[in-house]
Design goal:
This protein is an alpha+beta fold. It has a domain of 84 residues. It is globular, with a radius of gyration of 22 Å.
Length: 131
Amino acid sequence: MVGRGRLLGAAWGLSLLLAACGGGEKPEAVNPNVYPKDYKAALLRFLPGYRDPTGIRNAYLAAPVLKEIGSQSRYVACLRFEAPDGGHEYAAVFFAETLNQFVEATPQLCGGAAYQSFPELQALKRIGDGK
């Protein structure tokens, strides 16, 4: 049986070894504003886990555009639809092509958005219902 002190010492030594392997290199800078070309697929993967998509109708989506959020720019895609519990409008915020935030739409984010029909959203099923 190994004593607790030896285990902690071994873990500390391993952490030093791993730190030394980094070579002091800086990680590559990430461009936060790469256009999210797969934004529709990202939303279709995300939404069934966010809410039950059953009964969604009149779905519309606006392609991502750069918007000011605080002091930074991010790509934002606006989504609106009708559901059994009423109408909804959201803003999907992307960071480096990845859906990063999903928030209630505001006039600053989605005012004047160029919405287009988004029938793929209407075809979604609840998670576990086959699609």
